[in-house]
Amino acid sequence: MFEHAFKGSLRYWALIFLFGGLFGVGFLTFLYQYMNGLQVTGMSRDVSWGLYIGQLTFFVGVAASAVMVVLPYYLHNFKAFGRMTVLGEFVAIPAVLMCMLFVLVDLGQPARMMNLFLHPTPNSMLFWDTVALFGYLGLNILITWFVFGAERKGVPAPRWIKFFIILSVPWAFSIHTVTAFLYAGLGARPFWMTAVLAPRFLASAFAAGPSLLILLALIVRKFTTFDPGKEAIQQLGRIATYAMAANIFLVGMELFTALYSGIPEHLHHFEYLYVGLGEADTLVPWMWTSAILGVAAMVMLFVPSIRRNETYLAWAAAMIFISLWIDKGLGMVVAGYVPSPLGAVTEYWPTLPEWMIVFGIWALGLLLITVFYKIVISVREQAEQA
Questions:
Q1: What is the 3-state secondary structure (H, E, C) of 166-202?
Q2: Are 241 and 211 in contact (CB under 8 A)?
Q3: 337 touches 269 (CB < 8 A)
Q4: pLDDT tens across 147-168, in order?
Q5: Distance in angstroms between the alpha carbons of the first and the last residue of the chain
Q6: Where are the beta strands (DSSP E) in the chain?
Q7: Alpha carbon 56 to chain centroid distance?
Q8: Residue burial 285-304, b: 16+ Cβ < 10 Å; e: rest
Q9: CB within 8 A of 75, min separation 6: which ones?
Q10: 0.85 cut: is pTM over it?
């Protein structure tokens, strides 16, 4: 099966070398960070989580969103997702691996990660987040290996695998819920300490993940003979629409609570994001861009004629993905630190090494998706020819 990864067109190998080269640059930059310490980043005593943990938060949601195709297909027999399910699984695996790498680079000294296993702390949310991520990665590898392997051989998947498929559904919800608890459990950070953080995380995940799958499915259909199915793409569009609406509703509830109550400890974080605190306004244009893109995409997708047009659907999906990346991958983490519990306003912006390391991990994820999709498409083409 893996032999298909070593055969491909010039376009395929160009992507492999492009993503491989970007990952190499990111790895060399990480070695520079390793030798010089986290002082090469924009993080400080007041802002100790930055771009790395923001990416972790965002991609945990992308990984969890695979359940949006697994649940309808396996539990409700929604046949339209038959070709889309494997694409979703092969996005979840690289996404989880990327999450682990973002934690690794954020630690500064990678050996520190071993403390999670050598000295486990059951009352720590970070410990349970690690357990959830490793478990979800294992489930996705197991399910994909046996289900796709059976399909390649033209035989039914083993019956026992259904148990692990069903188990993966609540597990997908758990990985992003536990990630939200990492933030919500910090009492000194009012911006994060809210009961709606976990539902908001899940809603944004179920909008960003299907949006990414829409874009990948359209790319696959354009450049290969594999067609994930028009109905499947349209259904993902509906899922992204209502999930984005739920996410915007939850953000609105947060804004109402902060603005109407006027409690400074909660209000100042939103002020920093959307109007700035004095001269500290670095994230203001980013957050307004996120808000405009998110609302505009949701409005577009609520119009059936626009959603059925795949060109407009692709634009809306890209807008949702970018909007939520800005919100969760940058703004949500940083705003929890500004201002600090003592009222200090210390701005944060990622340095060039941080961006290069992040782009390197992104490139690795895209490299894995490219290879996995190449295997899927090649196996499906062989099956159809036979």
A1: HHHHHHHHHHHHHHHHHHHCCCCCCCCCCCCHHHHHH
A2: no
A3: no
A4: 877 777 777 778 888 899 889 8
A5: 16
A6: none
A7: 7
A8: eebeebbebbeebbebbeee
A9: 166, 169
A10: yes
Token pair of 256 as six digits: 């109402």
Copy the structure tokens of residue 310.
């795949």
Handedness of CA 341, 347, 349, 354 (dihedral sign): negative
Return the minimum-mean-pLDDT range out of 66-75, 173-182, 326-335: 66-75
Tally the C-alpha atoms within 13 A of residue 72's C-alpha that lie toward its C-beta: 17
> What whole-number distance in Å separates Cα of residue 67 and Cα of residue 168?
8
8 A C-beta contact, residue 236 and residue 228: no
What is d(CA 112, CA 133) in angstroms, rounded to the nearest whole number?
Answer: 17
Phi then psi for 77, rounded to 5 degrees? 55, 40
For residue 264, give Cα distances in angstroms to 190, 269, 282, 317, 341: 10, 9, 20, 36, 11
- What length is written for the chain? 386
